What does this fold into?
Amino acid sequence: MEELETVTGEGIQDRKQACPEDTWPGLPMRFVFDNFDEMTQTLSGNNTLHDTMGILYKNLLDDHTIIQHINGTPTPDRKAPEEKKAVKKNRPLTVADTVLKTYFVVPKMTVFNYKNTSIFTLPDDAIRARNLDLLWMMSHTFETDVLPMWVGFNARFYKDELPKQEVRYIPNLKEPIASLSVVRQTLQTTQRCAEECSQNYDLATYDLNAAKPALQIQARESPLFDNIFIMSGAFHIEMAFCMWST
It folds into this structure.
């Protein structure tokens, strides 16, 4: 098993591509980067081993031939299998870590140009959701064992028409995401994956502690990373909203 895992790991490293395997051109894809606690825990949460893990999520099609007709982008060429040479069976894997260049400049962003001029109104689905919640709570007064819990109850009335998606993993970076060098590397990875998949733009999502330096680096090195849309994670947006509302 160790030999098979080692061969798989070597095959991934030998691809020399930023995108994970089976990432097809012409399909929308997005990225998320965050800290990953590496096999250690402390009572305070400090002094843990933090890696930076990135994931790529994209639409999933059952028939890959459909991709040939999306934006006129052909599917990747499949090379003929080469004759395999006898290799030595290894159990340990020699990992080729990404070499990060130290980012010496402290980026600053004095002007924030993202202005929200839209007027928020409740969507029509909000009224329907409130009615379903009221119906679910009223149904509980009958104390029946047939009634499912809230998620199962709503699932009976919800039809998901969005395309299915799958998640692929980007190689880990062995430094915490708060490092400026790591943040810049994630921007480069996002940009490189977009180029490999023939996309002019792409979107990367971070938690607030990484989204802020990412926006600062983007502003300072403009127009280098102008084709990346940097988003803050929904969890931190919700926290900011709760703090503002109180």
